[in-house]
User: Fold this.
Amino acid sequence: MAVKIGLEIHQRLDTHKLHCNCQANPSAGKAEFVVSDVVQRRLKAVGGELGLVDVAAAFEARQKRVFEYLIDGRHSCLVESDEQPPLPLNEDALAIVLGFAKALHSQVVDEAHVMRKTITDGSAVSGFQRTTLVAMGGFLETSKGKVGVQSIAVEEESAGIVEKTSDKFTYRLDRLGIPLVEIATAPDIKDGEHAKEVAEKLGGILRDSGRVQRGLGTIRQDLNISVDSGERVELKGVQDLRMMPKIIDVEIARQKKDGVKNGGETRRIEGTESEFMRPLAGAARIYPETDVPHVSITAELLARAVVGEPSGDKAAKLEKLGLNGQLAERLAKSGEYALFEKIHLNTRADATVIASSLLETLTSLKREGIAVEKITEGQLLELFSLLAEGKIVKAAVGEITRFLPSGKSPGAIVKEKHLERISGKELEALAVSGKGMGELMRDYRLRVDAGELGVKMRPAEKR
Amino acid sequence: MAYSKKLLDFFKAQGIKEGDRVRAEKGGIVYAGMLMPRAAGDENALVLKLDSGYNVGVSFSEKMVLEKLPAKSVAVKAEKPVAAKHKAGLPKLAIVATGGTIVSKVDYKTGGVYALEKPEELIRQFPDLLDACELRKISSPFTVMSEDISSANWIALAKEVSKELKESDSVIVTHGTDALGYSAAALSFMIATNKTVALVGAQRSPDRGSFDGAMNLVCAAHFASKAHYPGVAVVMHGSSSDDFCYAHKGTKVRKMHSSRRDAFQTINGKPLAKIYSDGRIEEMAFEAKKAEEGLDAVFEEKVSLIKAYPNSDPAILDWLIENGNRGILIEAMGLGHVPTNGPKSWIPHVAKAVDKGVFVGITTQTLYGAVNPLVYSNLRKLSEAGAVFLEDGLPETMYVKLGWVLAHPKWNAKEKMLENLRGEFNPRLKDSDFRLPSTK
Assistant:
């Protein structure tokens, strides 16, 4: 049996939108989505560049649905609403993607052409997603040899679905247009465990740039699988990398049993199984975006490529911030370095506390089954600001983190769980309460800094 | 824009032409795909459509290896549309196409836009038309971009529409949107009819799923076939949503946004009707007046529309007079002000124009509201200089009307310009006729 496995990774970039000046990061913001406008549209099936209607497009168009778009004017503009022509390709996004191309030894195209990829499920208001091929070829080193890179593209994120009924799909437009890098590997992946490794390694390279969004849904993995030279199946939306080996095994077994229909299928992953979404989209659905110029990839542009720092340099920098050698090395090699830098730079909280929270607390909470992937960057920034401002003590950080997946702000959790730091007169009162250090720390561990309490207590009272 | 001569010679030497499947090898990278024509960008880079569907530009280099590959049907899995048949007993409709994108298809190979010439082709694109009318004919007296339209085009268009009105119950004119309002005004004055002439356009191109023109066209067909509006109207999206269209009076409509679907709005009044794409028509706000029918397709070329603004140079009026202009339409400030005192006063120049028999008309750049020659002394000075204050007439409509009026040597220009011939003036501006956008 010959199985071919390829991986497609999509990661949102941390910059303004690809073809307009809006900023949005739905996975980080503390602010709620506020609907300021609603528009409803219908889509019709259209011929592509070669004048032919793509099967995938026709399939969706037959459904005659109404698409409703919820607009929060702070995060989208007339470009997302398809009421204004797009701006030229965001060069900052391009610079980030050029960095990935470099890291993956990929050959950058001489002239990048913005294309329209027909999307008829309504998740692109225009009826297409803008996508630009930036580089081809290259490879990733893995424990099982080199895995080839087929293509690296930068494209617009789709609108987020809010509700689906039989005749109406409702989307919100904040997410639409955020730049996504799409990296497709060659079908060189050996097995499920290998696919997981490739996904993790690619994820690390992306995060090393320090320019990717973080949080639930900001990175997505799709799998391309075919068995015995059969038609290809695209499996969309691997949520948890740990499930990847199982998903692959289930799909291989399914293809052997049921075969592949329609000359290729796009299927949505549900748990470890998958369900049919639509026929595999063909090349007919990609045609040129005539509203924006092509981009010549000049030496100047290449020089702007965002390159991640080598981990050795990072580790040295971290040690200067007070991290011990082991923690520094681990953080430098992990995918959390960029996030650490951002939090440290913005909050100036204790570097060791930030580092051990990101590396240890989150991992152990995850082991407990807590959905740490729901924790947003915005929440972490607020959490460490509270620490830096002295509003909470180090020991409370882990406890607050435990409740972050609920979506509540750290400040609200502190209030709710009574985790405010005890200081000043209140602390002095505790110090002279007659209770011993051990007893006090047992009762007030999450609210009192032991060092601070020690200073307040006279040596004689320390027992 | 095309490939450089160097590249074209290179293709020729290799026996390769646009549309061929080729293999290009450069710097160890192999590109395989269809050689596409180049519409813009680097003329020394090949545009290849890869099998994945993506286009890329590959810079030419002397070391490049380019060879023709056997043609391969690109992995296109396409469906053929189905033909449809007319329903019996519906009103007859003719479409006059003038080159807007609405009834065209784009050929990406050449970058050219081709008009759909046969009713069947159009019906295949817009099958919902069959619920509204019997589409008799599509004709095209000329094809120009809307911004290139001229008075000669207006005359040809009026003649064509008038001819089609004899054979059909109503006529739809498809038109690019930038000058659509001007053409609507021109047809309004040139054609007196009890039938409906509906102008329609699109703000999005027809190659995208979100094309707005399909609904505009279908709504226009319903309006033209069923509403019995006597005269010229513009039918376009009523909101940003694909829910309904408004029909606007041809003399009171203006493009108020450069790109939105609902760019066309009735100024100083209410739309004529609200039309849903399923054919329902609501809020009819017009009288089915019987007009004396006829075609009067003439236009005086020597008419100009200019804008008066702070610090503007009134010498422009002298230049226009010297160059033989017989009518000048001024888009003035507020109630009709032009710079009046000081060295840049327009008043002596206006007086000079009037003395020389040039008609000078005053409209307002606020668009909303009417001009008034009486409220301030500076307005009276302009009026006394002989300028004619044209009520709430839109500057563009008044410009077109002036060209049409002055083409009639026996008419009294001032009298005709002030006569409400096609609803170009609204004698009762109501409180609800002006709405500011909300601040959200």
